[in-house]
Amino acid sequence: MGHSLSPHMHQAAYSHLEMDAKYITIEPDPLDLEKTIKTASQNGISGLNVTIPFKQDVLPYVQTDKLAKRIGAVNTIDFSRKKPIGYNTDVGGARKSFEHHGIDLSGTNSVVIGSGGAGRALSFMLSDSGSNVSIVNRTECKAHELSKSVPSSTGHGFSELTNLILESDILVNTTSVGMKTDVSPVPIGSLRSDLVVMDAVYRPLETRLLRDAKEAGSTTIDGAWMLLYQGVESFEIWTGKKAPIDAMNNAIRSNL
Ligand code: ATR
Asked: Is the predicted pLDDT of residue 2 greater than 70, yes or no?
């Protein structure tokens, strides 16, 4: 998620703090990820971001922290210790996106649409924050599968979406619907003013779902917040410094 904007965001942070550092993109050898990781660590690189589709594939080659192990995906690798350590900052990024908007998740009911990588991170985060999570996926069996590992969650098909939203406080889209075409995965009539709607899609920043939600008076959270806060957490892991959040946020929004 967000690989093409990450160089802008991190470079802006380095400039702001006057750090002599560079964020570069590396095309890994998909058949030899171990070699890519080793080579990077031996060439003075402090750490790596891992993007789709490699977030699960790198697991055997890093020592995962507790959260990354539980989620089963790594998006950040740190080389500051003897062994490369794998973290998942997507979860914290999602949590901070809600915190930033002053939303308390405990005791809420939430609907997560999608059960890919982003759906997984959001479902765990919501559940850990005290929300009862309904996972809705086009391929229904994947929603059931994911719900088995996420506490306080249930899996559903799209036919149940409208009814589930009726009983929910939070709605999150983690599918790619709305990215290339101006369509929403949610019927406009199911959106309400007391709903918080988050879209993990950030291109376009205002998806059809978020536009519909604004029109219905819902509180909206765009996908650039999650991109920002996962980057903030990764920056702090790699550098040990407090991330300049405003500079990073400006860099994302001005490059979208
Ligand atoms: P990511 O890691 O970014 O979440 P992914 O693993 O490819 O990406 O997952 C994509 C998610 O979007 C899946 O939940 C997928 O549903 P399926 O499991 O049924 O494939 C969902 N998705 C993609 N296109 C969709 C569409 N047109 N309608 C509904 N769901 C869609």
From this structure: no
> Do 96 and 109 belong to one domain?
yes
Cα 57 to ligand 1 centre (Å): 19
> Using 50, 70 and 90 to split pLDDT, how confident is the model at 67?
very high
**Are residues 34 and 104 part of one domain?**
no
Average pLDDT over residues 133-152: 98
Same domain, 99 and 175: yes
C-alpha 96/C-alpha 235 separation (Å) is: 15
**What are the tokens at 42?**
């031996």
Task: Using pLDDT thresholds of 50, 70 and 90, give the confidence band for residue 4.
Answer: confident
Q: Whose CA is nearest to atom 21 of ligand 1?
A: 175
Q: Is 100 in the pocket of ligand 1 (CB under 6 A)?
A: no
Active site residues: 55
pLDDT beyond 60 at 3: no
Helix (H) or strand (E) run with residue 247 in it:
helix 245-254
- Ligand 1 atom nearest the C-alpha of 175 is 12
Over the stretch 194-245, which tens digit does the pLDDT of each residue have?
999 999 999 999 999 999 999 999 999 999 999 999 999 999 999 999 999 9
Question: To test ligand 1's pocket by mutation, which of 88, 140, 175, 209 has the most ligand atoms within 8 angstroms of CB?
Answer: 175
Q: Which residue's CA is the nearest one to ligand 1's atom 9?
A: 116
Q: How many CB atoms lie within 10 A of CB 254?
A: 9
- The H helix count followed by the E strand count for the chain is 10, 10
Does the residue 20 lie in any domain?
A: yes
- Token digits of residue 197: 């709607």
Q: Are residues 15 and 45 in the same domain?
A: yes
Question: How many domains is the chain partitioned into structurally?
Answer: 2
Q: How far is ligand 1, taken at its centre, from the CA of residue 102, in Å? A: 28
Same domain, 115 and 209: yes
* CATH number of the domain enclosing 169: 3.40.50.720
For residue 127, which amino acid is it?
Answer: S
State in Å: Cα 146 to ligand 1 middle: 13
- Give the domain range for residue 19: 6-90+225-254
